[in-house]
Amino acid sequence: MNEKESQRINEARQIAQTILAQISASDPAALLAWGMEKPEAIRDFKAPDTGMYYLGGVAFRVNGAKVGIAVVTVLLNGRDMYDITITLPLHNGPVKIKSFTDVYCDQLEELIDGAIERNRQ
Question: Would 105 be classed as within a structural domain?
């Protein structure tokens, strides 16, 4: 692995850790309550379908009361905001059930929680 590749991997890890910390800052128990597991850092890439360039992100599994087992993907877009996609991992391929674009860091926990858990009373 060359130095540039190593730097890209380290940047991806840092972005992933920042996203998880921002979710926890809004609600320290959120990740635990969602049953979050298997977090994976996502490196920078250009989305083939939209041409949008993402600086990195994180994907993790949750077990939400509303959706059951799902995968949450949070990507840092070029506008310094986040795009969130929630998918169900079905046998014939993942099915997107909810997505949000241009989300601020202080909205992450509330939007994800509302999409995967029961409606708040």
Answer: yes
